[in-house]
Design brief:
Pfam family, one: ETF
Number of helices: 9
Radius of gyration: 21 Å
Helix content: 25-40%
Order of helices and strands: EEEHEHEHHEHEEEEEEHEHEHEEH
Subunit structure: Heterodimer of an alpha and a beta subunit.
InterPro entries: DHS-like_NAD/FAD-binding_dom, ETF_a/b_N, ETF_a/FixB, ETF_alpha_N, ETF_asu_C, ETF_asu_C_CS, Rossmann-like_a/b/a_fold
CATH class of the largest domain: Alpha Beta
Structural class: alpha/beta
CATH superfamily of the largest domain: HUPs
CATH topology of the largest domain: Rossmann fold
Bound molecules: flavin-adenine dinucleotide
Family: Belongs to the ETF alpha-subunit/FixB family.
Oligomer: single chain
Function: The electron transfer flavoprotein serves as a specific electron acceptor for other dehydrogenases. It transfers the electrons to the main respiratory chain via ETF-ubiquinone oxidoreductase (ETF dehydrogenase).
Length: 315
């Protein structure tokens, strides 16, 4: 079997769900080898083994975390030279895509970004033109480097006991040009990350500025909260939660749009969601054209009733 490199996404050893998804995809293509950058690899091992990593390559050189992306791309180039992978999978975050682009140049390889699916080949699927087209593509030169969007696969467990191999990398001075002087995590909301969440409940202008029912329903489902641009521009919800063309692109298992009309720019960010539910008091609202389930009604009545029912069924 060929080796497939997976760059691990983690926060201090806590492996993110995107990595479980990448490992699941990697198993369709060959033997997944996880590349872990930074401290805490021992904490990450159980999660990496749970999703089938056959080996973990640990890169602990301090420059890798002291500088912005360039050293990470150099390090991956050196790992690739040793492992000779058939494919390299990286998460489609802003950082992931920059690492992937730099790596593609270094390896003289083809790069595909924002895949929503990857099958044997590897053949990728991308959703383009505001989700109106689905494109299948294949890298034809070098080692395929593919960045994969969150929720592109459902993580499937495959218990392994990966060994850890420490790998020394040498980072050039030209890669050490942008030093991180400070970093602090965003204040936790207790809800899942918007781009990784399996369920999202979004509110729009129809909330009238009261996101209470949206948040309560989201919490009953363990979901993230999103917002339309109209709601964000009105100052009702922070910009970091905007879904759409000029906000985040999301693809959860379930997307609930409450008081959102369904403008093309909003759809662009959410129409690849697996199941879409809308609550809108206007039965002619365009959002109803793309939903799996639609509720015509006032969200201030529908959401609290739904929240109560979910809470009742959970207890
Ligand atoms: C270049 C560009 C980029 C853009 N990028 C984005 C983007 O990233 N994301 C985005 O969302 N938009 C974006 N927009 C804006 C987009 O065109 C729409 O204006 C916006 O999505 C509308 O938000 P909305 O659906 O919340 O509001 P509206 O279009 O005003 O719709 C509100 C809906 O709520 C319903 N409603 C009202 N009261 C209730 C109630 N009590 N209960 C239930 N339903 C109710 C109404 O029937 C209506 O359908 C962009 C626009 C441009 C030009």
């Amino acid at each position: 079997m060929s080796n497939v490199l997976v760059l691990v996404d983690h926060t201090g050893g806590k492996v993110r769900k995107t990595t479980a998804e990448l490992l699941t995809i990697a198993r369709r293509l060959g033997d997944p080898i996880a590349v872990y950058i930074g401290d805490g690899v021992q904490d990450a091992l159980p999660a990496l083994g749970q999703y089938g990593a056959t080996k973990v390559i640990a890169l602990t050189s301090p420059e890798l975390t002291q500088y912005l992306v360039a050293p990470k791309a150099e390090a991956l180039q050196q790992v690739a030279a040793k492992v000779e992978p058939s494919t390299i999978l990286i998460s489609s975050s802003a950082e992931g895509k920059e690492i992937a682009a730099r790596l593609a140049v270094k390896l003289d390889s083809g790069l595909i970004t924002d895949a929503v699916d990857v099958q044997a080949g590897p053949v990728t699927t991308q959703s383009v033109f505001a989700g109106n087209y689905s494109v299948q593509a294949k890298v034809t030169h070098g080692t395929p480097i593919i960045t994969v969007k969150p929720n592109a696969a459902t993580p499937e467990a495959a218990q392994t006991s990966p060994e850890v191999e420490e790998f020394d990398v040498s980072i050039s001075d030209t890669a050490k040009t942008a030093k991180i002087v400070e970093s602090k995590p965003r204040e936790a909301t207790g809800r899942p990350e918007l781009t990784e969440a399996a369920i999202i409940v979004s509110g729009g202008r129809g909330t009238g500025g009261d996101f209470g029912p949206v948040e309560a329903f989201a919490d009953s489902l363990g979901a993230a909260v999103g917002a339309s641009r109209a709601a964000v521009d009105s100052g009702w919800y922070p910009h970091a939660y905007q879904v759409g063309q000029t906000g985040k692109t999301v693809s959860p298992q379930l997307y609930v749009a409450a008081g959102i009309s369904g403008a093309i720019q909003h759809r662009a960010g959410m129409q690849t969601s697996k199941t879409i539910v809308a609550i809108n008091k206007d039965e002619e609202a365009p959002i109803f054209e793309l939903v799996d389930f639609g509720v015509v009604g006032d969200l201030h009545k529908v959401l609290p009733a739904a929240t109560e029912e979910v809470t009742k069924r959970k207890s």
